[in-house]
Known about the structure:
With about 750 residues, the chain is α+β, with helices and mostly antiparallel strands. The protein is globular, with a radius of gyration of 27 Å. The protein has 17 helices and 31 strands. The protein has a seven-stranded mixed sheet, sandwiched between helices. Strands 16-15-14-9-31 form a five-stranded mixed sheet, sandwiched between helices.
Amino acid sequence: MSPVLGAALDRVDGRAKVTGTARYSGELNLPGLAHAVLVGAEVPSGRIVGIDCRQASLADGVHAILTHLDLPRVAATPTLVPSLAGLVAHGQSFFPMQDDVVHYAGQPVAIVVADTIERAEYAGSLVQLTYAELPSTTLLDQGRDRAYEPERIFGGLLPGRNPTRGDPEAALRDAEVRLDLTYRFAANHHNPLEASTTTAVWDDTDRLTLYDSTQGPAATQLSVAELLGLAPTRVRVVSHYVGGGFGSKALIWPHVTLAALAARQLGRPVRLVLSRDQMFHSCGHREEQEQRIRLGAGRDGRLVALTHDKISLTSPFDDWAEPSLETVSATYAAPNYAGGYRLVRGNTITPTVTRAPGKATGMFALESAMDELAYATGVDPLELRLRNHADTDPDTGRPWSSKGLRECYQRGAELFGWAGRDPTPGSRREGHLLIGTGMATSAYPVAAPISPQRARARMYIDGSAVVEAGISEFGTGALTAMTQVAADGLGLPFDRVRFVGGSTDLPNIAAAVGSAGSGATSSPVHLACTGLRDQLVGQAVADRQSPLHGADPAGVVVRDGRMCLRDQPEVGETYAELLTRNRLPDVETVGTWQPVLPETTDHAMQTFGAQFAEVAVDADLGLVRVRRMVGVFAPGRVLNRRTVHGQLMGGMLWGLGQALLEATRMDPHTGRWANANLADYLVPLNIDVPDVTVEVIEVPDPVVNPLGVKGVGEIGVVGAAAAIANAVHHATGRRIRHLPITVEDLL
């Protein structure tokens, strides 16, 4: 076993972050830098009939005020393609400030550029726009009667209706136990600590550098190049450190290109920073939605039918729905299944990927319904899931590339103390507190980019190495994990390898989204480093002056930078000795990984886990406190146990927020989010955090990628809210079928 791969090593970027030397996109000091702010539309639907910039233009420090009357047209209509595709990644198929039409409140309608951000913000408040307002739809219920079934969703990657298996309607009619349940979800927003920020610098009339807060530098490069009509080689994107994203920085929103247009118009560097309020209106969100689940089962709890239908609010121009159905259909062995999406066009920005997109909501609906089925049949909730365990993929019949779900159930139940639980709601009380426990299954598909992924490894004459790939570090610990992968592949000590990312000058990597980042980056890094190692070993055995001359390369291993015979470790030499003797200052190679696509493999690929929660509900006040959470997951190969633990724990706490706190409320009169700030949009604080136990079961997976990495960025969220909601029901006897659960629901 590798001494470095999987070890809980300290983060290589830790010192830079705690000392403040890490530089984010909004911290660059550039000569002549100007500051831009966006002015957003104040109505949700209509036309601009008047623009008065006179007072704003007279304010101190103002360089320019740009509207659709001043801004040049973009070169292409955006094509909505999620970043996972590894292609362009526009946030929506509409680009603002091209005409006088307003599609949603907050839509950019003017850009004010000044010498300081404070002066730009003040001048922006003086811009006066007059609108001819039109009727709008901002809530799901307002347009329910106009719902339609889209041909495709999710940037065109998925069909609007899932393939049906069996005859679910007939199976439901004949089922001994039938449930028909509807679950509603408030809209959610990402709220990373760092607001989206872009600094645009034109080195020439057709050469652009963007310092952008993005989850995918290559996605930014390709999107902006297309919109501006430039070759991608004329656009360079730098993104070394990003202060969180959670999906809001995966697709590329209009402000990035608007910053570039403003900088070209002024002939000087321009920085555009979204305000916290604008983050709610400008970078997508998890859409308001409703899901209906129908279950048919025998009295023993074994499923015979499952139907799953979703209706949600999308934008006026995109058929967007987060994919809530696909994992649900494949989690349990239900022989009869049907499911589909319906959309309502509303006056909103296009929704987008939000942590555990689709699965956080879809699995809440399924796992809540499974808990209701457990009570309807009198079967223990954990036993019910074991009885319906899918040994193969129910959708295709293909075997899983790896699973480990049974082991997660068993270990989670042991850690939590599930055995002997009294299932009777309200049966456990501590004074005025009602105590309840619940559990749920976690599942998330193993995603991979469509395009090839690349990395470069270079060994220097002193035996140290630099490995490069175009990823950004947005808090996940990617730089550390990839350094470990590189050190393992090269057979070097961890401190002899430096991993470099954060620029489109480096080999291409798709945006880190959908838990695909670790697999998409570690695979080419591993291939580049093992390729370079094998190249140097081959050179050594061919070198007459090497102690390894004439040896079988398959019998040579590398430890701590020293190549030696496996059976005679005293025979060998270091990389540095080989390169010095041959007067080679450096040697490099590029690793290319072509991802395994679902249609090209005989296996189904999912990540699985199990979540358990204990809550205490104040019987007098309706307050819910989560006291314990246990999560056990099987994410394939673990690259760094410390960062994996942090990702999974963070996901579980995100699920706590989803269950009890997080909701963005729409004001239908203004079409604006009424709580677009971190004072009124509630997220878990330290006082809300319970005891959290996280364990990982490593099940080898030879199919998903060279190292068997499935990813952990999303799976920790999935199932956490359902486990908590199921525990609330166990404590109180009240079944809440919407999120978040509030005090009012329990009084």
